[in-house]
UniProtKB/TrEMBL annotation:
<feature type="domain" description="Protein kinase">
    <location>
        <begin position="412"/>
        <end position="671"/>
    </location>
</feature>
<dbReference type="Pfam" id="PF13855">
    <property type="entry name" value="LRR_8"/>
</dbReference>
<keyword id="KW-0067">ATP-binding</keyword>
<keyword id="KW-0547">Nucleotide-binding</keyword>
<keyword id="KW-1133">Transmembrane helix</keyword>
<keyword id="KW-0677">Repeat</keyword>
<dbReference type="InterPro" id="IPR051824">
    <property type="entry name" value="LRR_Rcpt-Like_S/T_Kinase"/>
</dbReference>
<dbReference type="InterPro" id="IPR032675">
    <property type="entry name" value="LRR_dom_sf"/>
</dbReference>
<dbReference type="GO" id="GO:0005930">
    <property type="term" value="C:axoneme"/>
</dbReference>
<dbReference type="InterPro" id="IPR011009">
    <property type="entry name" value="Kinase-like_dom_sf"/>
</dbReference>
<dbReference type="InterPro" id="IPR017441">
    <property type="entry name" value="Protein_kinase_ATP_BS"/>
</dbReference>
<protein>
    <recommendedName>
        <fullName>non-specific serine/threonine protein kinase</fullName>
        <ecNumber>2.7.11.1</ecNumber>
    </recommendedName>
</protein>
<dbReference type="GO" id="GO:0004674">
    <property type="term" value="F:protein serine/threonine kinase activity"/>
</dbReference>
<dbReference type="GO" id="GO:0005524">
    <property type="term" value="F:ATP binding"/>
</dbReference>
<keyword id="KW-0418">Kinase</keyword>
<dbReference type="InterPro" id="IPR008271">
    <property type="entry name" value="Ser/Thr_kinase_AS"/>
</dbReference>
<dbReference type="InterPro" id="IPR000719">
    <property type="entry name" value="Prot_kinase_dom"/>
</dbReference>
Length: 711
């Protein structure tokens, strides 16, 4: 065995660990065991001076990559793709003088990219995608003059593309999608004249998108960034372009007529750019090879020529045209007739049922007995929805909004008081077979104020009804509308408030895992509310805990409804709790990002165990510190870097830089998984990279000399 030169066993379901003795096969030149089920760690030392190919991809190996492998001075190709390797990238691997191919994608590697690897001047292919790498892109890598293929997709890399990388004049494919990169494209890549594929989707890039001299480019992916302005008409010079994806940015103006010169274009995605206007230029019919066309909206379909309609139909942007000119019953007419007939049948059934119900129901307060379903309380109108005595009203288990106060008065006793505030008191009791919390609004006093109090009360009921189906919101069971006896009947949670959990006497510190789970529950509730409803007062006092520690949101009294989900801001009064109010909320503007800010403050309070801004004496002082000086609550010095970065992103001064609620949940899930696996991630994951090439592999095609070695 010591004289073996080639050892290759592929796709054979091998199991177990790699024998340690294999590291002493000094004559071995090729070791290829890809696509098996091998596991365990690899030898720390590999004394194989003749080894040229090491291919262990698509197995279950784990542990760190050894820096001592650099002693294998003849190695030219290493493929460890799709394993479970951890730790850092060894800087010592920079001493591989013959290395031309290195594939480490789909592992669990972390920390920074080693700047020492700039010494790998012969390196042709480098794949580090789908790991947990952090930090900035090393400027020194511009010395890798032999690099042709570089894949850094789906990591946590930050900063800008180094300007010095423009010296990589041989590079053909560069993919850094799904990271946290910022800045612009030019002049960072202006010198990469040999590029055929550039994918920078799903980052935070902005600025100028036109880069001169990219005439060899065939694939360009810039989706899901923050680019604005006009689409460059000068891209018409990139006549070799076959795939172009600029979807989900902020581009404006009209579609460039000059793009008709892109006759090789097969795939074009413009979706998610609401600022684009006008029509599809008729000259675009010259794009005879176009098979997939994603348009910003269906308003553009009217200008699509017959030659391009098939491409627009393939993307779902436009409805397919009729396939026959002969008269036939249109599909829309068939659907319309079916819908109308169904509505008529349902209406007739309901009418008969209501007629019978009105004739037989004995409850004089039943809402269904009154036209318009409107009731009057001392001259003030409100909408009645359910009656406690009417079985037909209660059949679907919806909240009873006509509970008589006499039914609740036995519960409202001093010894049952569990909480109070400036406007209400809360009592615990048993109502209709379940333990509930009864919130009783304080008496409004003057007769003239009844209408205002009733309107505020109705607003809170409406907010609760909107969110009553979410299991992360405290459920509303009923309400009493009697004047000066306004009551809400809510679900009772045994765990108390999050404020009591954090600051209660004798309570243990809130762990990182508990913080993440609480934040996940709150974010789940907010995702149900957003974008139509903004809570505006997320804080520990408004978070209740179940017996097992799961969290639910309460108190929608300050919630606001946005009837247009496309609106970003809601003009409002300055309401909320100062310590948790975002800068824009302090100025009287709120949006869904206001709740994201408060969630960040709440997570930090869980970990730090201190009330935010307790050093300030007045709410006005807090608002001044937050808006003018961009102050934030103090963070623990040993706060895990992953959750620290998540909190920091949530309370960004500029609300446009805060993540959306879905991205927050995605990052929390990632941190929870990392915590379960025994260590926090370096930084929460951003949204997954947009898949630019539909039907095309995400991995790069290897050059001929590397493909022969199964890299």
């Amino acid at each position: 065995m010591l004289n073996m030169r080639h050892f290759t066993v592929l796709n054979s379901s091998l199991t177990g660990q790699l024998p340690r003795e294999i590291s002493r096969w000094t004559n071995l030149g090729v070791l290829s065991l890809a696509n098996n089920s091998l596991s365990g760690t690899l030898p720390k030392h590999i004394a194989m001076p003749r080894l040229q190919l090491l291919d262990l991809g698509y197995n279950n190996f784990n542990g760190p990559l050894s820096s001592y492998w650099a002693a294998a001075s003849s190695i030219a190709r290493i493929d460890l793709t799709s394993n479970a390797f951890t730790g850092t990238l060894p800087p010592q691997w920079s001493t591989f003088p013959q290395l031309i191919g290195l594939a480490l994608g789909h592992n669990k590697l972390e920390r920074e990219l080693p700047q020492e690897w700039s010494a790998l001047t012969r390196l042709y292919l480098l794949q580090l995608n789908d790991n947990s790498l952090t930090g900035k892109l090393p400027e020194e890598w511009h010395r890798m003059q032999g690099l042709n293929y570089l894949d850094l997709d789906n990591n946590y890399l930050t900063g800008r593309l180094p300007v010095a990388w423009s010296e990589l004049r041989q590079i053909k494919k560069l993919s850094v999608a799904g990271n946290l990169l910022t800045g612009s494209l030019a002049p960072e890549i202006s010198g990469m004249s040999a590029l055929t594929t550039l994918n920078m989707s799903s980052n935070y890039l902005n600025g100028d998108v036109f880069v001169p001299g990219m005439f060899a480019l065939q694939t360009l992916g810039l989706a899901s960034n923050e680019f604005t302005g006009s689409l460059p008409s000068a891209w018409s010079a990139m006549t070799n372009l076959t795939r172009l994806d600029v979807s989900y940015n902020g581009f404006t103006s009209q579609l460039p007529i000059e793009w008709s010169a892109l006759e090789q274009l097969q795939y074009l995605d413009l979706r998610g750019n609401a600022g684009l206007s006008g029509r599809v230029p008729p000259s675009w019919s010259a794009m005879s090879g176009l098979t997939w066309l994603g348009l910003p909206s269906d308003e553009f379909c009217g200008g699509v020529s017959s030659e391009m309609m098939e491409a627009a139909t393939a993307s779902g942007s436009c409805a397919p045209p009729s396939s026959s000119t002969a008269w036939r019953v249109p599909l829309w007419l068939i659907i319309l007739v079916a819908v109308v007939a169904t509505l008529l049948l349902v209406t007739a059934a309901i009418t008969v049922r209501v007629f019978i119900h009105r004739a037989t129901c004995s409850d004089p307060l039943c809402a269904h007995r009154h036209p318009g379903f409107l009731h009057s309380l001392d001259g003030h109108l409100f909408r009645g929805v359910r009656s406690s005595k009417c079985k037909w009203c209660m059949w679907d288990g919806q909240p009873d909004l006509q509970v008589p106060f006499a039914e609740l008065s036995p519960l409202i006793e001093e010894e049952a008081l569990i909480g109070y505030g400036g406007f209400s008191r809360v009592y615990k009791g048993r109502w209709r077979g379940r333990v509930v919390a009864v919130k009783v609004l304080n008496s409004c006093g003057k007769e003239a104020e009844i209408g205002g109090w009733l309107a505020a009360f109705q607003h809170e009921v409406d907010m609760c009804l909107r969110c009553n189906d979410c299991d992360r919101m405290v459920r509303l069971y009923g309400a009493c509308y009697e004047p000066n006896k306004l009551c809400l009947i809510n679900e009772y949670l045994e765990g108390g408030s999050l404020h009591e959990r954090i600051h209660g006497k004798g309570q243990p510190a809130v762990s990182v895992m508990e913080t993440l789970q609480i934040a996940k529950d709150i974010a789940t509730g907010l995702m149900f509310m957003h974008p139509e409803v903004v809570h505006r007062d997320i804080k520990p006092d408004n978070i209740l805990l179940e017996k097992g520690g799961r969290a639910k949101i309460i108190d929608l009294g300050l919630g606001r409804v946005d009837d247009n989900p496309l609106m970003t801001h809601i003009n409002t009064d300055v309401s909320g709790t100062a310590s948790y109010m975002s800068p824009e909320q302090c100025e009287g503007r709120v949006s869904t990002k206001t709740d994201i800010y408060a969630l960040g403050v709440l997570m930090n309070e869980c970990l730090a165990g201190k009330i935010p801004f307790e050093e300030y004496r007045t709410a006005l002082a807090v608002q001044y510190a937050v808006t003018v000086h961009a102050k934030r609550p103090n963070m623990l010095s040993d706060c895990p870097v992953g959750i620290r970065n998540l909190i920091t992103r949530c309370w960004e001064q500029d609300q446009n830089k805060r993540p959306g609620i879905r991205e927050v949940i995605f990052m929390i899930d990632f941190l929870i998984e990392a915590e379960i696996n025994g260590g926090a991630a370096a930084e929460p994951k951003k949204r997954p990279a947009t898949d630019l090439m539909q039907g095309e592999s995400r991995a790069f095609s290897a050059p001929p000399e590397i493909a022969t070695a199964n890299l």
